[in-house]
Amino acid sequence: MEGLKNMSNNYEMTVDGHPNIYNNMSARKLNIYFSEPEHGVKKETGLMIIIPGFGGNSNANVYKKMRSYFADQYNLVTIQCDYFGLEFMQSDVLEETNENFNDMGPLQAIDIISGTIIVQEILKDDNLVYNNNKIIAYGHSHGAYLAYLANAFAPNLFSLIIDNSSWLIPVYLLSNRQLRTVDETKVFNYRVKEIDDFDFEIYDLKRLYKKLNTNCVIHSFHGDNDNLISLRDKKKFILPLRKSHLHEVTKDTVNDVFRSNKHGLDADFIKMFEFVITELKLEFKKAKSSVPTTCRIETSKFSYLIDFDNTIPVLSREKKSS
Asked: In this structure, what CATH number is given to the domain that contains residue 70?
């Protein structure tokens, strides 16, 4: 992305995050980053939250440039946040604690929803009108998975998910993460698998989406040589969903947008977004209410409540009697 120029207005802030549901609702902070178009927010302006996966960092230059570039070129308020446990998903093996660890799911999704809604509220407080029906979640690998999970927790919020190689259940819940470098292999044994009352079902997108009533359009891109989730399994998930489209990438269709048919597709994030918006000729309806409503999700172990009565989501769970 060298040479890309932008004049967007860029902001950073730290707010009170959702309390830690795994540690007696202890206090947390949430860092949010967002960029507005150079010429300001108009009624046609949409919102997009960019969700990195393992190895991604909101403060990396590539994401800073993406936030600014997309804001100016596509008339978007672009958002990122340092969701729960993101620092444990990088290349260094850090010691997780009860207060902070990589939960790979529920609290991370709540942070993504919160970051999106908080920016919406800032725009409203500034009396800025924007397109409520153009709220996009753009994710890579685990980031795309979190886009799906956030949509399940707030079915009325997002109008479009752009998915690059999402899995259906985080692979590192099933095995350790191994990061091979020239000199060594780093092993990440994430503690979430060992916490009391770990609930595998709340992570399973196939289960969550069986009865989900959402109008969100989904464009999913997946390689036929993905070693973390097979194209066959992705097809079984995507094809039955309303307003969902699966784009297969094979060795015969790699190009300057998708340079590989493996996990992550070695995608050019800028060109991938341009392809979705321009080549697929997406149209967004005029603004309408997209306020999430309180919802409940049932698993064998827990009843989860995602409460939007005070706008910012509050997640609680009640253990079922055995």
From this structure: 3.40.50.1820
Domains held by the chain: number: 1
The 10 Å Cβ neighbour count of residue 298 is: 12
Total-model pTM = 0.95
Note the pLDDT tens digit of each residue in 166-176: 999 999 999 99
Closest CA to 251 of 261, 263, 264, 262: 261
**Main-chain phi, psi angles of 15, to 5 degrees:** -125, 170
Tell me whether residue 4 is in a domain: no
C-alpha to C-alpha distance for 230 and 97, rounded to whole angstroms: 33
In tens, the pLDDT along 130-150 reads 999 999 999 999 999 999 999
